[in-house]
Specification:
The protein contains three helices and three strands. By secondary structure, it is α+β, with helices and mostly antiparallel strands. Strand 2 and strand 3 form a beta hairpin. Helix 1 crosses helix 3 and helix 2 packs across helix 3. The N and C termini lie far apart (about 25 Å).
Amino acid sequence: RLSGQLQAVKLILADHQWHTLAELAQRVNGSEAGVSARIRDLRKYKHGALTIERRHIKNGLHEYRLSPDYTG
C-alpha cells in the first residue's frame, strides 16, 4: 500500500505544477497526513532524494511540486 501511494504522489508531483496536500490526498485516495509522509519519503535518499518544493499560500496552507529540474 505504501509503495503504491508513494508512486502515485510522485507521479502527480512530476507534472511540476503546484498541488495542496488536500488535492493530493483526494487524488490518491488517502489522508493529508499520509501524503505529507510520502512527500518526506520522496526527499529521502532511498527514494531518490527528490527536490520537492514548498510554497506558502496563506494561513498555514502550502503547495508542493517536484522541482522543475527533475526530468526522471
